[in-house]
Amino acid sequence: MERSGWDLGRDDVEHLLHEAAAMRGESLWQDALRRLRRNRAAWSSLLFLALVAAVSLFAPALPLPSPVTLDLQLEPQPPVAPWSVWGSHGFEPDYWDLTAVDGLLVKARLAVFGDWQTGHWLGTDGKGRDILSRIVWGSRTSILVALAATLCSLLIGVTYGALSGLLGGRVDNLMMRVVDVLYSIPFIFLVIFLITLVNEYRTELEDRFGIDREVVFFIVIGAVYWLTMARVVRGQVLSLRNTEFVDAARVIGASTARILFVHLVPNVLSIVIVYLTLTIPAVMLFEAFLTFLGLGIEPPKVSWGLLAVDGSEMVNPVRIYWWLVVFPAAAMASTLLALNVLGDGLRDALDPKLRGKD
Amino acid sequence: MSSPPLLRVRDLAVHFPVGRRGLLGRPARHLKAVDGVSFDLERGESLGLVGESGCGKSTTARAIVGLQRASAGSVQLDGVELTGLDRRAWLPHRRRVQMIFQDPYASLDPRQTVGSILAEPLSIHGLAKPRRRKLEAMALLEAVGLNPRHVARYPHEFSGGQRQRIGIARALALEPELLICDEPVSALDVSIQAQIINLLDELRRRFGLAYLFIAHDLAVVRHLCERVAVMYLGRVVEDAERERLFASPRHPYTRALLSAVPVADPARERERRRTLLRGDVPSPLDPPGGCPFHPRCPEREAVEGDACAVSVPSLGRVGGGDDAACAHQSACHLDPTLE
Q: Who wins on pLDDT, A299 or B31?
């Protein structure tokens, strides 16, 4: 396609492109990242969360004792310092059904460490299972729940909210009333109802559709957590859609989808991210809460909520097995704290009013 | 007349419903932002549209480019009706009509590089291959007097005047014939304003552009436009060649508007006689009957009877040549229309 009138009239186009690359500007994201790094608390929270994510992702490859192998003793064993008992041999992989990737990770572990496993550094519970291992494996459930909620928030919430705000008028009115109605459903009852129902027909559901309780659990959490996101995004889009750059996009002929995903979504993404980092702890807490009530994760799978149940059951007036409660609680608390601090830091870093300042 | 003008606007009206009750209720009233605007714009011509804030200049512009649905009337580009077209039907005409916006801080997407802002129209219309688009963007930057090496920078790294140049470059990317400028300089510093005006003047000569130039600054319009249309309360009240309009304005509102312009020469400034208008612009929600200007008109006494308060004067030819481009039209009961 030849275009008249716009000839660069230069031979050194490559050279010019090279110079342009050298003069590349700093995007708002790069600016935000720079300012986030300056915020020590937020940056160390981010690093800590990255560590938690890495550990939980590679849990099967770590030389930890099995989180499920029973060793029936009379009572829980207290923590042993690593320097007194570093580890022992005799590990046997007897997990529940693992996914293919996890199976590979277990194989990698066996290849690297053989049957060596760490000592019970954080003690064991009443059935002789290693607490550290159970915390690490439990973090996978928490992260999975967080991921499910995040995905629903992003896919459903952002699209729904952005569309509602962009279309405006009666469509917007209708879409937001739907959200209001969903909001008004007392979802804790909904969860209890759904899970009881699933329990009733669980074998049938699992055999026929492959739906187990956990899937229902994730669906319910996802169904609830996109609502607020939709509202937040809708409000943002509503204020952005009348700006001149959206008008300009229309005048050059951009489609609604293009305006939505090229212009509006990137501009609300910073608020979305901040909101997500503050939603994730709420979701994790919700999982623990439901599990505590006996509605969430079931043994043999592990979750932080389940560890809290186990721990609280062992607390009695005669003897307090503190390590059963303190370590899982500390793991959960530190993760939630890190998420909140990070969310706060992100809010500051992504605030356009503070741009370019320290 | 052999061929139709580049842009022909006839009885264009934009009414906004106000005070809708409930989800499906009918609006209580209509705000008549634009109420019967007509003008022609020839190829390569530039028409200034002036008037005070709220008189419907910007709404007229938005209705022409389809950002605002017209309630009535017609907008024709080269004889093709534009009102009522959907996005797809509009698409081929987008290449011929482009727009420059008022606020250079709001009209550029802050998350896009200048390169992708300028490449976007090209990719929407399938012009130029992806690799070539960057070069086109650089050529556009050069055309508007910016450093083409800044193609990978973001809008926040530019000043207001530079941003407005980027906005102009985006409008030029599709090589339009008609550029609608919605107060392109009123958000800029005075020193920068002159640069942008000169740039627009230069681009016009270079690419043979026609301008519909909206402004409230008469000096700017006088510098850039060959023809000027004056709007008051959603209507065009006078439309004439630049020299004619500034030398012998016919409509009382135009006279008042021109008398408000200060003169740089102190001696002449002291002699300048201002026509002070009484009161405020009436609300377009509740416009006065008859001539919209009659409650404030300083020359109303000159009209016999109460025609001003009863009938709306239509825009009629009061002088100038027969050709539409040089006709002098005014809408006032004082002016007997030449037929």
A: B31
Query: Which of A33-42, A270-279, A317-326, A349-358 bottoms out in mean pLDDT, i.e. has the lowest?
Result: A349-358
For the domain spanning A38-58+120-354, the CATH number is: 1.10.3720.10
Helix (H, G, I), strand (E, B) or coil at B85: coil
Rounded Cα gap, residues B38 and A285, in angstroms: 64
How far apart are alpha carbons B115 and B166 in whole angstroms? 10
Here the ipTM equals 0.88
Element (H, E) at B145: none
Nearest-angstrom CA–CA distance, B98 and A6 = 17
Say if residues B226 and B239 touch (Cβ distance below 8 Å): no
The number of C-beta contacts closer than 8 angstroms across A and B is: 125
A327, A334 contact by CB (below 8 A): no
Residue B213, number of CB atoms within 10 A of its CB: 27
* Non-local CB neighbours of B309 within 8 Å, separated by 6+ positions: B288, B289, B290, B291, B294
- If contacts are CB pairs under 8 Å, which of residues 239-268 in chain A contact chain B? 243-245, 247-256, 258, 262-263, 266-267
Strand partners for B224? none
Contact, B157 vs B114, CB < 8 A?
no
Q: In angstroms, what separates the C-alpha of B256 from chain A's closest C-alpha?
A: 32
Q: What is the largest CA-CA distance in chain B?
A: 70
Instruction: Check whether the bond before B282 is cis (ω within 30° of 0).
Output: no
Rounded Cα gap, residues A59 and A138, in angstroms:
10
The nearest alpha carbon in chain B to A270 belongs to: B111
The tens digit of pLDDT for each residue in B75-117 reads 999 889 998 888 889 999 999 999 999 999 899 998 899 999 9
- What does DSSP assign to residue A353? G
The residues pairing with B31 across neighbouring beta strands, listed in sequence order, are B16
Distance CA B193, CA A317 (A): 82
- Give the angle B103-B50-B9 at the CA atoms, nearest 5°: 95
Per-residue CA distances from B27 to A168, B16, B24, B181 (Å) = 17, 9, 9, 32
